[in-house]
Specification:
single chain, about 450 residues, alpha+beta, Cytochrome p450, three-stranded antiparallel sheet, 17 helices, globular, disordered N terminus, disordered C terminus, binds protoporphyrin IX containing FE
């Protein structure tokens, strides 16, 4: 049940930023985040962000704002727009707890961006439509279950595809992003749409084209023809759904045409992209932490078919904390909301900037170090402001599914190959960088159990 207007009791006060500070937030936080690409990453900008330390600068900017204005929401001075940034973990989790009323997930920007390829997806839906589409997603992804019912089958798929990636890497003595990603997406298409989609690159290419437009939200017109071609193709997969796929599960669970299953599936395809990035970064982090890698290998050696692998999973979660793949969690107020002092008007756009909460070295001692122990209690730490999958009623419905699939894939690869980073790419465990460009990471690969040559 939604709380009455005045029961949203944050002890903090709303402040108003100066014009100079507003410009600094736009320059250091908003612009770099948008430039990297909200819907599909622009490789060159990610590389630039790494070289220039842009994510570190963004976190420092947010810390300065909190020091100056206090922990309450900060309203920016932007003409014709109510825009607030959130400066405390406490307010972030309170806002996320109270979605979609009075803090709607279907914000103006999201509706514009997602409209390019999934206008009726749950993330840009509100009211009754949101409720029934959310239900369909939760049933498909089995959000409430620790292990998905089809995990055995998905484990086999992950193993087959990663065996191929490992074989190519061993032949070349090297693993780079592109060859990992080809295998990763074969796995994703089989899990999401069934075996028949394994080599349907055309489908993911269509989606990529639409996501590039979506990066510009309302600044680019919709390509309705490509969108229709893409959505019709997905509809065909649903019509002849492979029962051993998420599409099969979704087709079975769908009870109302307004749930629009073919508008839900694009998210399943594009959101596995960050799952691949985080897995690839996990390899880099393990290479920088030999003692943790040794424990992970021990865990893998002792694991069964659908292993729990708590340490590997926790490393993956901590990589998502260190480099959150959804850095901007957005909300829009559906009515006026009072804080302890001050208020946010109806229609206020709210930015929760996850890297600030995850890398705040003033509140988190291990901010810049790998610490899998943070995730021993599960996949959520709103108490610490750690929100890689968000939190509350709009939490990513794949909050358990993604770590499961990533863990299965990483296990399969690591059981076959050992990965090391070259001298110039090596990470310092004491101070991990604010940005880690997955596109340029390159590992030398040797058979697992053997020491790398040279
Ligand atoms: C590393 C991978 C992923 C991360 C970090 C991630 C994280 C997130 C985040 C932060 C949100 C926004 C929630 C909010 O606005 O509060 C979200 C929404 C969502 N995610 Fe994921 N996600 C990932 C992968 C996936 C995958 C693979 C799927 C599907 C198979 C998926 C399905 C969804 C859906 C359907 C929503 C919309 C939920 C709603 O609006 O109620 N995600 N995800």
């Amino acid at each position: 049940m939604n709380p009455p207007l005045d029961s949203f009791a944050s002890p903090h006060s709303v402040s108003q930023a100066s014009l100079l500070d507003t410009m600094a937030v736009l320059r250091d936080v908003v612009l770099p985040t948008m430039a990297k690409g909200p819907l599909i990453r622009r490789r060159k900008v990610v590389g630039l962000a790494e070289r220039r330390g842009l994510d570190d600068k963004a976190v420092i900017r947010m810390q300065k704002l909190r020091d100056k204005y206090g922990p309450g929401p900060l309203l920016l001075r932007i003409p014709l727009r109510h825009q607030a940034v959130i400066l405390s973990a406490d307010d972030a989790s309170r806002i996320l707890d109270h979605a979609p009323e009075p803090f709607a997930a279907a914000t103006m920007e999201k509706r514009a961006a997602l409209g390019h390829f999934q206008p009726d997806g749950v993330l840009s839906s509100h009211g009754q439509e949101r409720a029934i589409r959310r239900r369909l997603n939760e049933q498909t992804l089995e959000t409430g279950c620790p292990v998905h019912g089809m995990a055995d089958h998905f484990a086999r798929i992950a193993d087959e595809e990663m065996a191929e990636v490992a074989a190519i890497a061993l032949k070349r003595n090297e693993l780079d992003w592109d060859s990992f990603f080809i295998g990763w997406y074969r796995m994703v298409r089989r899990i999401v749409l069934g075996d028949a989609a394994r080599d349907d690159h055309e489908l993911t290419d269509l989606l990529e084209q639409l996501r590039r437009r979506a990066n510009y939200a309302f600044l680019r017109p919709k390509d309705r023809k490509t969108r229709a071609a893409f959505l019709n193709r997905l509809r065909r997969y649903l019509d002849q759904a492979d029962p051993l796929s998420l599409a099969g599960r979704m087709a079975e669970a769908c009870t109302d045409p307004a749930q629009q299953p073919h508008h839900q599936l694009p998210q399943y395809l594009f959101a596995f992209d960050p799952g691949g990035m985080a897995s690839f970064r996990t390899f880099a982090v393990l290479a920088a932490h030999p003692e943790i890698e040794a424990k992970v290998r021990h865990e893998i050696g002792a694991a069964g078919d659908v292993p729990q692998l708590p340490l590997l999973r926790a490393c993956f979660m901590d990589v998502l904390r260190l480099w959150p793949t959804t850095p901007a969690i957005l909300r829009e107020t559906t009515r006026m909301v009072r804080w302890h002092s001050g208020q946010l008007e109806k229609g206020t756009q709210i930015l929760i900037f996850a890297p600030f909460l995850h890398r705040d070295d003033k509140t988190l001692a291990q901010a810049h170090r790998l610490d899998p122990s943070l995730w021993q209690q599960g996949n959520e730490r709103p108490d610490l402001g750690l929100l890689p999958f968000s939190h509350g009623p709009v939490i990513c419905p794949a909050v358990r599914f993604v770590p499961l699939i990533a863990t299965l894939a990483m296990k399969s690869l690591l059981s076959r190959i050992r990965l090391t980073l070259s001298e110039d790419q090596r990470l310092s465990p004491e101070r991990l960088p604010g940005t880690l460009d997955n596109y340029t990471l390159r590992f030398s690969a040797s058979a697992a159990g053997l020491e790398p040559a040279g």
